[in-house]
Amino acid sequence: MNRSEFLKRMGLGTVAIAAGPSLLTSCMDHGMGGEAPNVVDGVFNNPLKVPETINGTSALSAQGGMETLGNGGEVSVLGYGVGLLGPTIRVQKDQNVNLNFTNKLSEHTNIHWHGLVIPAAMDGHPDHMIMPNESFNFQFPVIQQAGTNWYHPHLHGLTGKQVTKGLAGMFIVESEEEKALNLPSGAYEVPLIIQDKRLNSGGGITYNPTMGEVMTGFLGETILVNGTNKPFLEVESRFYRFRILNGSTARIYNLALSDGGDFYVIGSDGGLLPKPEIVKNLLLSSGERADILIDFSNVKEGKMLYLMNEKFSGMGSAQGDQSFNIIRFNVRNSENAEFILPTSLIPLTNLSGASKTRPFKLTMNMGQNMSGMHQINGKVFESDRIDETVELRSTEIWEFDNTSGDEAHPMHVHGVHFQIVARTGGRNTIVPHERGWKDTVLVAPREKVQVIMKFEQLGKFVVHCHNLEHEDDGMMLNFKVL
Ligand code: C2O
Ligand code: CU
Ligand code: CU
């Protein structure tokens, strides 16, 4: 990467030149350089793996295992089971979860239940470390609406590595209200955990972000779905429900169907939307979920149809410069199953009456240090420092202001669900899958996004960027609900 490209990627332009060349040289010395690898194409002929399902009163362990990811045969990975990733945990609304977790790794870990609004002591704050061979009993009530959540480790400085090596799984909440909608279920409801990985020649997962990749994100050349490289799924000519999780550390996907057809967004991070939204594209950043319906009933048998990533721009120069396929659907003609798309889903009451607006300024500063470049309100994460205090049962607007010219920040708040009030600058709009409850919102370069939420859980939680390289670099603050 030459100097001007480097500056462009930093989003600093002439400011950096004024700051002097010494800091540039030091960054370049520390492994800056090299473009993000291109995603490799190929034949999609591996059957999609679907994680097993367990209920909310099971045992779970983080452990090493074996999996075949590339062409080199079995490699060692991490997971909450025998291979990569973990089982899908499925619970009913109002059920009590009781999961006995054991750390069988050789380093500390913990679990954060991303999307679940639960007591702080169960939320997997980076303070909460479960040492090797230790167990912890996660017990909490599920008091929220039906939706697609997930779980993963949440340690300061280690989250990116542990997630990339395989520690992640889906957590689905079901409810009677949802059941009444008769959405596709059973074999017609499929989880899709999309992750990019960088594989070495032996097929093993590498994770060693350079300083430049801490900024751009550590992007991989191999796209896995549920841990399957180049997957396909046999589908019948009918409606399917896909619960999609972007479980990548940094890569943003602009999901589309390869025939340019429409699909329906029915849910987001915090559950079902008030009504289905018809879209052709859906931009999903790390940590976000989208619940979609695809109608295969008019697709001709034998046709190659893919869920793909379509090129996009405006999310930083490292993101979106390539279109690629993610999963192939092999459509088989079947009896037309009667499915009527509901016109409304779960009603949404708009939150209002915020008592204050809290600013969160998102910056990237190249200091002397090789870490701590990503800051919120000028601060780098410190586990013991309480950055914001909030009153229990108060409603507030939080404003995320992305001042960078070249980095997108998917901002995530623990312990709450929020609604998006406004987005100014950048895209200047609230997109269809954001019209419901969320916990993670993409704040593109130069965007300002306001979210509103009510704090119903006491204790210490975090707010952070879900680009895991940024998070591990310190782009996270503590807030305490009193
Ligand atoms: Cu998915 Cu704080 O994380
Ligand atoms: Cu979370
Ligand atoms: Cu970020």
Descriptive report:
Pfam families: Cu-oxidase_2, Cu-oxidase_3. Keywords: Metal-binding, Oxidoreductase. One of its GO terms (molecular function) is copper ion binding. It comes from Algoriphagus aquimarinus. Strand 18 and strand 19 form a beta hairpin. 9% of the residues lie in helices and 40% in strands. The chain is mainly beta and 482 residues long. Among the domains are: 30 residues, no CATH class; 126 residues, Cupredoxins -  blue copper proteins (Immunoglobulin-like, Sandwich), CATH 2.60.40.420. The longest helix is centred in the first third of the chain and has 9 residues. Bound molecules: CU-O-CU linkage and copper (II) ion (2 copies). One copper (II) ion (CU) binds next to loops. The site of one copper (II) ion (CU) has 6 residues, from loops.
Structural class: mainly beta
CATH architecture of one domain: Sandwich
Could you state the CATH homologous superfamily of one domain?
Cupredoxins -  blue copper proteins
Largest sheet at a glance?
8 strands, mixed
- Any low-confidence stretches, pLDDT <50, length ≥5? 1-34
Bound molecules: CU-O-CU linkage, copper (II) ion
Number of DSSP strands?
33
Count of runs of 4 or more consecutive helical residues: 7
Overall mean pLDDT: 92
CATH topology of one domain: Immunoglobulin-like
State the shape.
globular
Strand content: 35-45%
Strand and helix map with partners:
Blueprint: H1 3-10, H2 14-18, H3 21-29, E1 46-47, E2 53-54, E3 59-68, E4 74-79, E5 88-92, E6 96-103, E7 112-114, E8 135-141, E9 147-152, H4 159-165, E10 169-174, H5 176-179, E11 189-199, E12 205-206, H6 211-216, E13 222-225, E14 228-229, E15 231-236, E16 239-246, E17 253-257, E18 263-268, E19 271-279, E20 282-284, E21 289-295, E22 304-309, E23 324-332, E24 356-364, E25 374-376, E26 388-390, E27 395-402, E28 409-413, E29 418-424, E30 440-443, E31 448-454, E32 459-465, H7 468-472, E33 476-481
Parallel strand pairs: 1-15, 2-5, 3-6, 5-10, 11-16, 15-23, 24-27, 26-33
Antiparallel strand pairs: 3-4, 6-8, 7-9, 9-10, 11-12, 11-13, 13-14, 16-21, 17-20, 17-22, 18-19, 18-21, 22-23, 24-25, 27-31, 28-30, 28-32, 29-31, 32-33
The structure holds CU-O-CU linkage and copper (II) ion (CU) (2 copies).
